[in-house]
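Quick one, T. Sequence first:
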Amino acid sequence: MIYLIAFATLCSTLLGGYFALRLRDRLHLILGFSAGAVVGVAFFDLMPEALELAVNTATETTFAIMALGFGLYLLLDRLIVLHHDHNGERHLHAARGVWSAGTLSFHSMLDGIGVGLAFQASPAIGLIVAAAVLAHDFSDGINTVNAILKNGGSRRAAFKWLCVDALAPVAGIILGSAFAVSETQLAGLLALFAGFFLYIGASDLLPESHHAHPMRWTTVATILGMLFIYVIISLAH
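Structure tokens:
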């Protein structure tokens, strides 16, 4: 069963990336949807899961880790900017795209680890977590392709990173099935990535989706992205 789910996560990610590649001329709408999806994952999944798992940790500490994730991503993003002058603008965008795609891929691996650990608890819990991860992987595929394309990357580069992101949850499921991670450690990782995703969605994807495009439909797309994640998470639980 778990190997079938691993294959399903791969297909879900590839499907989301294919959707983004085929509709590149509507990229601003997809970026708006992606921004809503990324922020939705942070608010509706990563934060609640981190707080639920951190039973032996103060709530303030968990939120501090989320803030640390946001600030750390902000610092790294600014460092990338500082290491490139105006003549290196193309390389600057490429570095941002790779960093964003790499972060999304690592998050996908954590999703897979979550599935593996959930199945260690019980098959029922594993299936619930897997249903949420499948939905996340579809949006992750879209977000990974968008991270490369919006920063001037080629379709070929976007496809390569899509493959990396598609394989990441499979690797995570294998790792999650092989060893156990404490709830406190997992809660800290989820909180950290909640901060990462809030920065990616609010400070990167959302402004780019509104740049030189009508705000009405991009705003609608962003709200739909958040609602999509909320509904999927609610149904999964």
